[in-house]
Amino acid sequence: MVDLNFSMVTRPIERLVATAQNGLEVLRLGGLETGSVPSPSQIVESVPMYKLRRYFPPDNRPGQPPVGPPVLMVHPMMMSADMWDVTREDGAVGILHASGLDPWVIDFGSPDEVEGGMRRNLADHIVALSEAVDTVKDATGHDVHFVGYSQGGMFCYQAAAYRRSKDIASVVAFGSPVDTLAALPMGIPANMGAAVADFMADHVFNRLDIPSWMARMGFQMMDPLKTAKARVDFVRQLHDREALLPREQQRRFLESEGWIAWSGPAISELLKQFIAHNRMMTGGFAISGQMVTLTDITCPILAFVGEVDDIGQPASVRGIRRAAPNSEVYECLIRAGHFGLVVGSRAAQQSWPTVADWVRWISGDGTKPENIHLMADQPAEHTDSGVAFSSRVAHGIGEVSEAALALARGAADAVVAANRSVRTLAVETVRTLPRLARLGQLNDHTRISLGRIIDEQAHDAPKGEFLLFDGRVHTYEAVNRRINNVVRGLIAVGVRQGDRVGVLMETRPSALVAIAALSRLGAVAVLMRPDTDLSASVRLGRVTEILTDPTNLDAARQLPGQVLVLGGGESRDLDLPADALEQGQVIDMEKIDPDAVELPAWYRPNPGLARDLAFIAFSSADGDLVAKQITNYRWAVSAFGTASTAALGRRDTVYCLTPLHHESALLVSLGGAVVGGTRIALSRGLRPDRFVAEVRQYGVTVVSYTWAMLRDVVDDPAFVLHGNHPVRLFIGSGMPTGLWERVVEAFAPAHVVEFFATTDGQAVLANVAGAKIGSKGRPLPGAGRVELGAYDAEHDLILENDRGFVQVAGVNQVGVLLAQSRGPIDPTASVKRGVFAPADTWISTDYLFWRDDDGDYWLAGGRGSVVRTARGMVYTEPVTNALGLITGVDLAVTYGVLVRGRHVAVSAVTLLPGATITAADLTEAVASMPVGLGPDIVHVVPQLTLSGTYRPTVSALRANGIPKAGRQAWYFNSGGNEYRRLTPAVRTELTGQHRRGNA
Q1: Inter-residue contact 238 to 19 (CB < 8 Å)
Q2: How many Å apart are CA 518 and CA 733, to the nearest integer?
Q3: Cα distances (Å, whole numbers) of residue 782 to 669, 762, 822
Q4: In Å, how far are 101, 358, 549 from 363, measured between CA atoms?
Q5: Name one GO biological process term (predicted).
Q6: If pLDDT is split at 50, 70 and 90, which confidence band does 420 have?
């Protein structure tokens, strides 16, 4: 008899029926009914921007246990706030409540379902989160613990910085990128990712939003293997309802219910500020017009790092260690992907219990969780090495051998290394070539001016951030509109093209606007320095009107001419006598309605040609005020040269420390920033504490300087630079060599780009690499050709060859700098023809240089600064540079002293606190000079007088004659070829009769 096993027949049928029933339920309802209900919650606050929910609201009846510390959870923009309560037992709010905490959730809702929601920007979310903190603090009386996932964690960081950690106990972030360019998803290179993000922000998401289905697909495409595997597993188990139910809520959340739309403005701002410009790291991101930096966070931070997280990659997440140096930053490393950090079995077993322990520890009610530790210092360099592709594949399928993985990893690293330099070169070439090409096309009749370039930038990027001051940001569009309004006001009071208008204003946005408005009108801005003889400035500049601000109004009223007051707003009181306004002596520009001004027929915006006079600046020479005329060509050469040499782009922020009335601020800082389309940060003055604070607040990447300006910062005893800093470049002219070394050491890995330009801008040199301290670099491409004419220093003559042409100076041979003009020639310039070839035209400068074996130029000094001693020629600059590099030397100067008809070369040095130098130091330093002789005498002085531009001056030292003998004075002994201490007997001999040979 045959024993029939009916289960062999019925089991497949039952499985097929169960599959059909469950599949029909999924098709009809979107998933299986689990019977789960959301955790109880109460809406505490409801406004158009968000709802604030309190889960498991406390029972206020007497005798109830106290409520634990409040935890405010923040979801990312593309994901529903229900992510915190996917399942009651294993969800975040349930676990935290069971641990005795007080969970709160901010719900931004679906922007496509809220009126005006698709116009939300990033700042709206951060401001809303800050307001929610106030509400939670008022309701609970306790400081709030932030918990954010992915972009929600970024919101937490940003809101904590925005509030300067006020009422915030700690920040917990899950897979939240900070240094976004350190490791982009899918292994995208940093240079490419930044460029693509910038393009998408400006040209795609300014007109396009992301619906919820697109957000879901984008997230799933980040890990297509895992997505496909999950769907296959679901179909294979569709017959087994009990096996599917525990993960069904999570599956439904990820497949459909958990995704919400993104507003275009918010995406655009995210891409531009935090990917293209990486301002979570550099600082200087704008929240409702206020500049914010993560260095303002002082509360403890816990960052959860997913070992195989391809979105919030470990290198990117760990950027918080450098971005928030004033916080204690901890990390918890979990073997999970991006979503697995917060939802799922691993999150329930590791993540949320750790968060509960963390909150109790920070609140003083527990011990430090065992699985967290202080985050180690992270390298500043981007290595393009986030979560390796091989690691992601291993996590997704788990079946590839270690040998194959090692081979794939090695091949990928080789390709990355081979292409990194090519990518960088390509990006920089695309950025700089158009500027150099435009610079090379300048001629007398080219229309170019400050006002014109600002107009172009406002047209190309109207919402681009331009001007930073007092913690606020102003866009190109806003500044350009203000400039046009001031132009109308100037026309209304009678200013015309070509008029010379004095600008006597403090360094602030209104001063920049005034200068740019005069440029747009075609007038000449005469930049008056408040610390000089203003009457002389008016006379030398032939000023007809004076633009001033309320601060300088009293000084301006003492000068001849009409006074125009700009800045301070419409409601400010100028405190003037009635007759001053009635008689027209003072005109309040803020009272003029620009819309009521009818533009005359002669007005054309930005009429300035390259040859036209644009600005007049003032400097001091031997105690006398000297006017420097700056044409549009001269301004453009410096502006385009700075932007090209420093590779300035929209990611940069240029920090202008010098007042706007100084030519370096006009030519380098403002000029380079405008041409580069970068942000420019104006400062109220140089103070070490303010310097560090503003560098971080504004995210300064490029610092402009003049001469020894930065000495006040790096040599200040209180100067401390903890953690990360955004500075990549210092750019300016005249930095002493010793200070150069100290700046590079303090701000590593930043370097110095030293500029040199003649007054007329015909010759421009730049030390782009910054490797050779003291070098002026090489000629700037597009700025005109330069050459060195061989020079006879003894007779002050340019040498010619036997054909009558100027002889070119050889390597390490001092020569006169000659420039071949490509623009308008200054009428006062020394023009030479037939210099190196028949009929060629060159301009002879007063500067002496030599060229080393690599073709780099080094300044020897001016033709008038050569000290012709009994021993031979002493060139001041190489001596000063060599002495400045001696360990312990602060500043150095070299000058000539006339003694009984003979010149003696003297160098004076100041020392750093506690430092000493020896005669051997001097001998060794001078021996290393490639050209010229060392000084006859070197002495230590307590301090050197600095000019208003921080340039060391020698007039007082020269007037004092030969230094006194002492322990800190030395003379050069020709017989021993070394420096020895200057004794009274030797000094007497020097001042009595200076002989060749042994002194």
Answers
A1: yes
A2: 27
A3: 20, 11, 9
A4: 11, 8, 52
A5: long-chain fatty acid import into cell
A6: very low
Name residues whose C-beta falls within 8 Å of residue 7's C-beta, 6 or more positions apart in sequence: none
Q: Mean pLDDT across the stretch 49-58? A: 93
- Whether 154 contacts 146, CB under 8 Å: no
Other C-beta atoms closer than 10 Å to the C-beta of 955 total 10
Cβ 85 vs Cβ 91: under 8 Å: yes
Beta bridge partners of 334: 306
Q: Which of 433, 846, 369 is nearest to 647 (CA)?
A: 433
What pLDDT is recorded for position 9? 57
pLDDT confidence of residue 423: 42
The CA distance from 292 to 157, in Å, is 11
Nearest to 439, CA basis, from 212, 637, 171: 637
H helix and E strand count, the chain? 32, 40
Q: Residue 748 gets which letter from DSSP?
A: T
Beta bridge partners of 302: 172, 330
Q: Can you tell me which residue has the tokens 């606050």?
A: 45
At 421, list the tokens. 């330099």
Tell how strand 653-656 and strand 702-706 pair up. parallel
**CB-side exposure of 637: number of CA atoms within 13 Å?**
31
> What pLDDT sits at residue 762?
82
Q: Pick left, alpha or beta for residue 961 (phi over 0 → left; psi -120 to 50 → alpha; otherwise beta).
A: left
Structure tokens at 46: 């409801």
Q: What are the beta bridge partners of residue 787?
A: 818
How far is Cα 282 from Cα 724, in angstroms, rounded to an integer?
Answer: 8
- C-alpha to C-alpha distance for 880 and 895, rounded to whole angstroms: 10
- Taken in order 340, 346, 348, 351, is the CA torsion positive or negative? negative
Count Cβ atoms below 10 Å from residue 100 Cβ, excluding itself: 15
User: What gap in Å lies between CA 103 and CA 168, rounded to an integer?
Assistant: 15
Helix (H) or strand (E) holding 547: strand 545-548
SS3 per-residue string spanning 946-990? ECCCCCECCHHHHHCCCCCCCCCEEEEECCCCEEEECCHHHHHHH
Residue that has been written with the tokens 């309701």 in this structure: 139
Predicted pLDDT of residue 394: 42
Name the CA dihedral angle for 225, 227, 230, 236, rounded to a multiple of 10 degrees.
-80
Asked if pLDDT for residue 681 goes beyond 50, the answer is yes
Q: What is the identity of the amino acid at 371? A: N
Confidence at 7, pLDDT banded by 50, 70, 90 = low
Distance CA 801, CA 605 (A): 51
Q: Which residue has the tokens 């050459």?
A: 787
Q: Which residue has the tokens 């709030």?
A: 144
Both structure tokens of 191: 């240079």
Q: How far is CA 609 from CA 262, 606, 631, 836, in A?
A: 47, 9, 9, 30
Compute the Cα dihedral for 642, 647, 649, 651 and give only its sign.
Answer: negative
Q: Which amino acid, 366? A: G
3-state secondary structure of 759: coil
Please state the rounded mean pLDDT for residues 274-287.
88
Taking phi over 0 as left and psi of -120 to 50 as alpha, with beta for the rest, 138 belongs to alpha
Is the model's pLDDT at 34 over the cut of 60?
no
Angle among Cα 914, 918, 923 to the nearest 5 degrees reads 140
Of 850, 993, 848, the C-alpha closest to 929 is: 850
Among 580-589, 610-619, 671-680, 973-982, where is mean pLDDT lowest?
Answer: 580-589
Give the separation between CA 847 and CA 888, rounded to whole angstroms.
29
For 831, the enclosing helix (H) or strand (E) is strand 830-833
- Rounded to the nearest angstrom, the gap between the alpha carbon of residue 813 and the centroid of all alpha carbons in its chain is 40
Task: Tell me the three state secondary structure of residue 12.
Answer: helix
Spatial separation of the C-alpha atoms in residues 299 and 328, rounded to whole Å: 7
Pairing verdict, β 102-107 and 144-149:
unpaired
Residues in the chain: 999
| The residue type at 517 | A
Choose the weakest-confidence range: 119-123, 131-135, 240-244: 240-244
